[in-house]
Design a protein that fits this description.
This protein is an alpha/beta fold and about 375 residues long. The protein has 13 helices and 13 strands. The chain has two domains: about 130 residues, Enolase-like, N-terminal domain (Enolase-like, domain 1), CATH 3.30.390.10; about 220 residues, Enolase-like C-terminal domain (TIM Barrel, Alpha-Beta Barrel). It binds 2-succinylbenzoate and magnesium ion. The site of magnesium ion has 7 residues, from loops. It comes from Brevibacillus gelatini. GO terms for molecular function: metal ion binding; O-succinylbenzoate synthase activity; racemase and epimerase activity.
């Protein structure tokens, strides 16, 4: 593959709602759109790092720096035949997974477009339609969350995830169960807001038949999660704690979780995402695709990876119109049936970019050439 040019664009896209978690809130989505040009095609991906280092240690600025100073030069200095070569080339760089994933993802898209293959097929996807859920943020009141649950259930989302934090947890889950019943596929995501000192809260949550509790304890922990999992019948799902297939292996061996959330950015790319998927499949651990409030470009990558067979639990890839007035992919990515998205079969990610919308959202851009 000949790479002729790499372009980075920083975009700011206003969200249609305020999205709050236990670690902060987002009103305007900030992302880096990566375009890799070669042999008449362009591959696209986006960096999912947030502006601030509160979900993980990366930020928009660290991603830009790592790409410019280390990762792009590696791509120009080495022959690349397949996306797996990129994974190997970036391996000596410690962490900075979101920076790596954005470049690797754009090269996956470019590679697929050059071969005339859909990204889903190239990754080993088997589904043409995927079930999706929705992640609902913390609101000022329980009633405001209930109103959102009602709206999104009516749209047919197959899994309702609510964000929790100490003081906004058991009462919320009890209210959702009371209003919508025990059959609603419901889970809670704590984004590391608890410690083992909150064991009583966890045991109370354990009474509500949740599909899982996502990342209750520290972002860098798998020991306490194993202790907690022994006390609960609800499966723990790890998000922040898993950066690689090695992390997944250790967490599963310790009994720290029963489910894993795969985010392509957090684990450093599609190649590593597929490894985690395959390993979890061999261990009978179901996986699902997490979200980072991605634009349509990032969500197109999420759709492609979700088409793999062990993504048996609906992910957080909601429709474009939930997030944006106008997405940066033409027409957005919308539900084709209640709670379902189509897996495109066109080349690469299968969506064209809306260059006019991108022009409205762009803050800065830079081009690199060999
Ligand atoms: O923990 O899954 C998370 C968004 C930003 C950072 C972390 C998380 C999330 C979400 C949103 O839950 C999922 C989405 O709608 O993209
Ligand atoms: Mg999470």
């Amino acid at each position: 593959m000949k790479i002729e040019r790499i372009e980075l664009k920083q975009l700011h896209i206003p969200l249609r709602f305020r999205f709050e978690t236990s670690f902060g809130y987002t009103l305007v989505k900030e992302l880096i759109l990566v375009s890799v040009y070669g042999e008449g095609e362009v591959g696209y991906a986006e960096s999912v790092a947030m502006p601030d280092p509160y979900y993980n240690e990366e930020t928009t600025e660290t991603v830009w720096h790592m790409m410019e100073r280390f990762l792009v030069p590696k791509l120009f200095a080495n022959p690349i035949e397949t996306p797996e070569d990129v994974d190997r080339l970036f391996a000596p760089v410690r962490r900075n997974n979101m920076a790596k994933a954005a470049l690797e993802g754009a090269i996956w898209d470019l590679y697929c477009k050059q071969k005339g293959l859909s990204l889903a097929k190239a990754l080993g996807g088997t589904k043409s339609v995927i079930d999706v859920g929705i992640s609902i943020g913390i609101e000022p009141t329980v009633d405001q969350v209930l109103a959102k649950v009602e709206r999104h259930l009516a749209e047919g989302y197959k899994k309702i995830k609510v964000k929790i934090k100490p003081g906004f947890d058991v009462e919320l889950i009890r209210a959702i169960r009371k209003q919508f019943g025990n059959d609603v596929p419901l889970m809670a995501d704590a984004n590391s807001a608890y410690t083992l000192e909150h064991i009583d809260v966890m045991k109370e949550l354990d009474q509500y038949g949740l599909m899982m509790i996502e990342q209750p304890l520290a972002h860098d922990d798998i020991i306490d999660h194993a202790k907690l999992q022994r006390e609960l019948s609800t499966p723990i799902c790890l998000d922040e704690s898993i950066h690689s297939v090695e992390d997944a292996r250790k967490a599963i061996e310790l009994g720290s979780c029963g489910i894993i959330n795969i985010k392509i950015g957090r684990v450093g790319g599609l190649t590593e995402s597929k490894r985690i998927h395959d390993f979890c499949q061999s261990q009978n651990i179901p996986v699902w695709c997490g979200g980072m409030l991605e634009s349509g470009v990032g969500r197109a990558h999420n759709v492609a990876i979700t088409s793999l067979p062990n993504f048996t639990i609906p992910g957080d890839t909601a429709a474009s119109s939930r997030y944006w007035e106008e997405d940066i992919v033409e027409g957005g990515i919308e539900l084709i049936a209640p709670g379902q998205l189509a897996v495109p079969d066109g080349p690469g990610i299968g969506y064209a970019l809306n260059t006019r919308a991108i022009g409205n959202y762009v803050l800065r851009s830079v081009n690199f050439r060999p």
